[in-house]
Amino acid sequence: MTSNTTENQPLRSWLLLGFLSLVWGSSFILIKKGLLVFSPGEVGAYRIVSAAAVLLPLSLPRILKLSRKQIGNLMVVGLVGSFLPAFLFAKAQTQLSSSITGVLNALTPLFVVVIGALFFKSKITFRNGLGLLIAFIGVIVLISVKEGSSISSLSSINAYALLVILATICYGINLNIIKHWFEALKPVEITAISLLLALPVALGYLFIQTDFTYKLAHVEGAPLAATYLTILGVLGTAVSLIVFNGLVKIASPVFASTVTYLIPIVAIAWGVLDGEMFLPGHFLGMIAVIIGVWVGNKKPKRKRLAATAKST
C-alpha cells in the first residue's frame, strides 16, 4: 500500500494542483478585466457560452443516452451550479476587489457541509460549526472595512459581498445535488451536459438582451476583454474540471481539496499586482476566512488515515 499524504505525492500531482490553483485563483482577475468593457450580465453569459462550447464534443454524444429525469436534474445543476454563480460573481466584482472575492469564494466547502446537513441528512460536527463561526467573523470584517480609512472604520457594509456568499451557497447546493442525485454519472459528464443545457439560456440572453456583439466590434479593448473571458470559461471551467477529476484519481480527494486554500493566495497575489487597496482589516478578515475553512474541513486523524487507505 502506498501513501497518499501530501508529503508523498508524485510530482505530477503537485503540478496539477499548482495548475488548478493558478487557473482558479486567476478567475477573479479575469472577471475584473472583462468588466472593463462588458456588463456583469455579458461577462456571466459569455463565460457559460465559452465553457459549454469547448465541452460540446463531450456533452452532445452523451446527452442522447439520458432519461428525461436525468436531463431535468442536469438542467438544475447547470443553472444553480454554473449559470447563476457566473452572474453573481460578475455583479459582485463591480464593487468588490478581485482578491476579496477570491477569499470569499473559499467559503464553498463550508456551505457544502451546511446544505448537506439542512437538506440531505448529512451530519455537521463541532469542528464544522467552529469553522463556520471563525469564517463568519472573517466575512463580517471583510465586508465592513471601509476603503480609504483605517481598520477602526467598520461602518459601511458592502452588500455586494452577499452576492459572492449567495454564489458559494449555490455551489454548496450544486455539489450536494451531484453527490446524491448522480451516482451513475461521471463528474465530467455532469458538468459538460449541465453546461450544454444552460447554453441556450446564456446564448439567448447574450445575443438578444445585451449589446455584446456591438461592443465586441466597436468598443476599444473589447477583443482583449473577450479573450480574458474566453480563458476564464475554457480554462477556468472546462479544462480545470477535467484536471481536477484527474487529480482526485491519481492522488486523493483530501489532497485535491487543498486547492481550496491555495486559490485565495493566488487571488490576493493578482490583486496586489493589479494595485488593489489592502487595509489591515482586509488582511485580518482574509486570514480568519481561510482559517475557518481549514478548521471546518479538517478531518480527525483517524478519518484522514481511513480516507488515505481507501484511495490507495
From TrEMBL:
<feature type="transmembrane region" description="Helical">
    <location>
        <begin position="228"/>
        <end position="247"/>
    </location>
</feature>
<keyword id="KW-1133">Transmembrane helix</keyword>
<feature type="transmembrane region" description="Helical">
    <location>
        <begin position="157"/>
        <end position="178"/>
    </location>
</feature>
<feature type="transmembrane region" description="Helical">
    <location>
        <begin position="190"/>
        <end position="208"/>
    </location>
</feature>
<comment type="similarity">
    <text>Belongs to the EamA transporter family.</text>
</comment>
<feature type="domain" description="EamA">
    <location>
        <begin position="161"/>
        <end position="295"/>
    </location>
</feature>
<feature type="transmembrane region" description="Helical">
    <location>
        <begin position="279"/>
        <end position="296"/>
    </location>
</feature>
<keyword id="KW-0812">Transmembrane</keyword>
<dbReference type="Pfam" id="PF00892">
    <property type="entry name" value="EamA"/>
</dbReference>
<feature type="transmembrane region" description="Helical">
    <location>
        <begin position="43"/>
        <end position="64"/>
    </location>
</feature>
<dbReference type="InterPro" id="IPR050638">
    <property type="entry name" value="AA-Vitamin_Transporters"/>
</dbReference>
<dbReference type="InterPro" id="IPR000620">
    <property type="entry name" value="EamA_dom"/>
</dbReference>
<feature type="transmembrane region" description="Helical">
    <location>
        <begin position="71"/>
        <end position="90"/>
    </location>
</feature>
<dbReference type="GO" id="GO:0016020">
    <property type="term" value="C:membrane"/>
</dbReference>
<feature type="domain" description="EamA">
    <location>
        <begin position="13"/>
        <end position="143"/>
    </location>
</feature>
<feature type="transmembrane region" description="Helical">
    <location>
        <begin position="12"/>
        <end position="31"/>
    </location>
</feature>
<feature type="transmembrane region" description="Helical">
    <location>
        <begin position="96"/>
        <end position="119"/>
    </location>
</feature>
<protein>
    <submittedName>
        <fullName>EamA family transporter</fullName>
    </submittedName>
</protein>
<keyword id="KW-0472">Membrane</keyword>
<feature type="transmembrane region" description="Helical">
    <location>
        <begin position="126"/>
        <end position="145"/>
    </location>
</feature>
<feature type="transmembrane region" description="Helical">
    <location>
        <begin position="254"/>
        <end position="273"/>
    </location>
</feature>
<dbReference type="InterPro" id="IPR037185">
    <property type="entry name" value="EmrE-like"/>
</dbReference>
